[in-house]
Amino acid sequence: MEHVEALSKYVTHFVDQLAYSGVKEVVISPGSRSTPLAMTFAASEDINHWVHLDERSAAFFALGIAKERQEPVALVCTSGTAAANYYPAIVEAYQSRIPLIVLTADRPHELREVGAPQAINQIKMYGDYVLWYQDLALPEVGLSKYVRRQAARAVDEASGKRMGPVHLNIPFREPLIPDFTMDGLWRDGAQPVPRSLKGKWTVDEDTIVSLTEKFKGKERGIIVVGPQMEDELAHAVTTLAHRLGAPVLADPLSKLRTGEHDKRNVIENYDTILKSETIRESLRPDYILRFGAMPVSKAYLKWVRGLDIDHYIVDTENSYREPAGIAANFIWSDAVPFCEECTNRLAQEGKETDWLEHWQQMNQTAKTLMLAEPDHNLNEGHSIVHLADAIPDESVLFVGNSMPIRDVDSFFMSTPKHVDVMANRGANGIDGVISTAIGIASTGKKTTLLLGDVSFFHDLNGLWMAKNKDIPLKIVLINNDGGGIFSYLPQVKHPEHFEELFGTPVGLDFTKALEMYGASHTKVTSWEAYKQALKDVYEESGLSVIEVITNRTDHVDFHRAKWKKVEEAILNGSEV
């Protein structure tokens, strides 16, 4: 009876503290050794629990919830390879700074490394991809305060200045069933650990004054906003840009292309503009001020590598996110107060420069040519254009990696709609894309997923949660039968190996799989059918898939022809 009492108090105080510290959602993967945690989370009145049968999909589902809410989500699994299946999502969460609290149940110490079933070495198994790790003590009487401190710290570590995943490995001895009828459980018998107070921070006033004077004295500044999750930055950074007379190169994941903030300085077509080596060489800024991670655009990366200029990177933590390998000035500060402090020291009327006008003209030229009506064949680029027109206000567009995010970069233009464009760009993987999108949709946000056929195949199991919990999701599936992005790489020049190793045609008809998961499915082969399908799915409830059939061999030529027209028009100074 002493063991059951110790176990029951241990897990109830642990889960209660997570709830008290702000955890509202938990995703549970079924298993035996995790029984104490699973049953306690299910019994909690303060934490909503989800059960997902596939651990890899479960972890990405939790990632999606945490990405949308920007709050820690707990993740529970049994011992053994179940924990290993969480690894891809944990890597993504670490790289993209998404708060997860990973709770892996484990065998007690006497059953480790002795050949016990379903036992692997789980000590620090996620290595450097978690912000904090603890191998907790076995449940004993008198450890309620101890587990509360561990739970409270887990939430603080996951949701601090540098958000990300944390890992608690929790050993349990049998019997594993807690008794919820005992006294001294939950909020009784041990006071909750107070929640930590968090505030905004910025650099000191002298530094702000010095930097503002430097920016103010330059006519050819550039502000870049890469992937980032802060909604308030759009207004703050565009106001700063207007007063500096600086163009803002806005990544599709920057939160700057959508919404009602001032977009007069926003340049969404910079990737297309910078595709031209000649244009890149003609554009030499005095400085670049970047917020967020490195943009998706490879053309931007090439341009930056060739610039010997002052480069400033504002980041919320002491990190070194600069893959271009340049000598950057790192400014560790919250982005919004930094922008506001700089803005307050600049003239209110704003600044117009020839440099800004030149970027605005190039942007309009590129936009006009990129949006020009295509021929009758379906293509990935204009599928984005029509999707942007049809997607509802106040919704999320979740984008798969490889070609979909690059097509969104090229063809998703600025809009007053409040559409939050998201992607898993931490590790840039194709795994778990469906599950992440369903996690976002589970929060109640209207969600559209755009992805390719290889990514779709890779996470088909993720659709189970949408079916099981009746979570509405709209999917635009670009099916070019393979990995289209490799056609842009040097590997394409080796046809004897290309299709098998890189093109990787999936060769599957997804109809039966989608029927199994209860999804409506429309396969389109014309623009009229596609536009009608978009109209129809946004009037439907539940899980809906539009499969757009395109030709991978035409993909490269279509894009390169667009880029060439933009380059020629800009270099010739043509009005389009």
UniProtKB/TrEMBL annotation:
Needed cofactors: Mg(2+); Mn(2+); thiamine diphosphate
UniProt domain Thiamine pyrophosphate enzyme N-terminal TPP-binding: residue ranges: 11-125
Pfam families assigned: TPP_enzyme_C (PF02775), TPP_enzyme_M_2 (PF16582), TPP_enzyme_N (PF02776)
Cofactor note: Binds 1 thiamine pyrophosphate per subunit.
Enzyme Commission number(s) of this protein: 2.2.1.9
Keyword Ion transport: no
Gene3D superfamilies, A to Z: 3.40.50.970, TPP-binding domain
Pathway: Quinol/quinone metabolism; 1,4-dihydroxy-2-naphthoate biosynthesis; 1,4-dihydroxy-2-naphthoate from chorismate: step 2/7; Quinol/quinone metabolism; menaquinone biosynthesis
Sorted UniProt keywords: Magnesium, Manganese, Menaquinone biosynthesis, Metal-binding, Thiamine pyrophosphate, Transferase
Entry's Gene Ontology BP terms: menaquinone biosynthetic process
Menaquinone biosynthesis protein MenD middle domain boundaries: 218-399
Subunit (UniProt): Homodimer.
NCBIfam families documented for this protein: menD (TIGR00173)
Protein name: 2-succinyl-5-enolpyruvyl-6-hydroxy-3-cyclohexene-1-carboxylate synthase
Organism of provenance: Halobacillus salinus
Source lineage: Bacteria, Bacillati, Bacillota, Bacilli, Bacillales
